[in-house]
Structure formats: C-alpha cells, structure tokens
Specification:
single chain; 298 residues; alpha/beta; Arc Repressor Mutant, subunit A; D-Maltodextrin-Binding Protein, domain 2; 8-stranded mixed β-sheet; two-stranded antiparallel ribbon; 9 helices; 12 strands
Length: 298
Amino acid sequence: MELRQLIYFTVVAEELHFGRAAIRLQMTQPPLSQQILQLEKELGVKLFDRSKRHVELTNAGTVFLQEVRHVLTKLDEAKAAAIRAQNGMAGRLVIGFIGSATFDILPTIVRGFQEQFPAIDLILHEMHTPRQIEAFHNKEIDIGFVRPPIFDPLLSLLPIYQETGIAVVPKSHPFAQRDSLSMKELSLEQFIMVEREIWPSWYDDIIAKCHAAGFEPITRQVVKEIQTVIGLVASGLGISIVPRSTSNFHTHDVTYVTIEQEAPRVDMSLAWRTDNNSTIVKQFLDTSTKLIKVNKLQ
C-alpha cells in the first residue's frame, strides 16, 4: 500500500466520480482506476460499488475513508512538525544549570525563550559546573549556565554578567545592623564555604581576598550548594560570602551586607559544545543575548 493510493482513494471518495477525480489529480482515468483496483486487492475488500453511471462507497469504503483521512492528517502534522524542528521552532533542549542561576538570570531567560518558542520542550537539570563539563562531554546537555573560567576546547562560552560578592550573616549577628563592612572585619568569623572542587574559582578568590586583608579564614563547614550555605548561616553556624544575586533568595533568618572595595567577584556564562550546530541551540543563544541586553545584565 502506497501513500499515493490513499490520496487517490480519498479524492475518488470525495468526488464519487472517477473522471472528476482524475482531473483533480491531474492524471488520466484508466491508471486511477487501476490504482483503486490494486488497493482493493491488497486490502481484500471492495471500497466502491461501481456502475457506468454511478459510484458509491461501500460500508467498508466509508470506514476506510475515515481512517485514511486520519492518517493523512497525521502525516500533514508530522510534516509541519519536521519543518518547525528544522527551523528551530520545535524540538527539545536539555539545559544544565548551577543552583545560584535560579536567583536571577535563569528564570528570565527560560521564561522569555518559552514565550517565543512554546513548542520547544525544555528539560532542566541542576548540576554544578564541573558536572556540567562532564555532561557536555557525554552529550547529556545542550546548554549550561556555568561559572567560568572554563578551559575546555570542546566548549564555547557566552558571558552573561559579572557580580561582586556580598556577606551573608545570621539575623542575630552584630554585622546584621551594618550597611557595609570590610574583608578584614571578617577575620575572626567562622566561614561556611562551597567546596573547592565544586566551585574552584570562587573558593580561591575568597581565600585570596582574605589573605589580602591579612588573615587566614576559619572554615567551619564546606558544602556542595550555595542554598545550603544560606541554610547553615541561618542556623547560626557561621557567616559566608556569596554572589550578590543570592540576596534575591530571601529568608527571615539571614541578612546580606555589602563588602567594601575588595569583595570577591564572580562571572556567569552560558556554555555549549562548539560542534553543536543545532538550530535550537542557536535560537536559545540569540534569545538569551537579547534578554541580557534588555534586562541590562551585562
């Protein structure tokens, strides 16, 4: 059974006249009749009752017409979906993201992209930057919200923004009443830190800024996620330095205090495989660039 036979059958069923059907199909009547006979033979059922002056659908033909119309509609939908996918209007995009991206940039970009491309299915996985690099190598993700620097020839980066660090202290801490403080004033505090292997550039910059202020930081606890840092600070176990955007993560039990001048700095970037030529990836990067400019995130 061929697709053209189904189309021929549908047109004959609509016209109930082989001559008119042949004209619509831009063919002659004899080969059209032969194709319908061949289809009936293959199906093992009679689709039309024919006479010299009259053509009617049989009961089997009526039922078959309903199913064929359904198949042809699905084929048209499949064709349209394939064209949308080729044009970057439909498909699937797997995104890795660091937890702190949810405090500002991730919701803005994801919401804007979904509004523009509602037929693209976004799959999001939270993972720290080293895990994302591994996921890129394994082709598990297409886009990543990462913390550079990243020195990997497989990956390309689009800088999003740079932000300064900010101190986070328990609500009951004396520093909670301050508008700002210096790094040196943190010398006697116990730090809650994100593990170095999770976020090496941030960890190293905090240590370097402490050394520049003349002290070795006292590390009370190291954790894997920035959200956990905030939770432990809220518990009164110590203080920390976090990216400024983290202050969008509100809690009644901590206060964010600006660090004067020598505060650590941190970058956010989008990453993707350099060899990934997907139209959808390009659409996501283009949309992100526009949203970054509109929201003045750079």
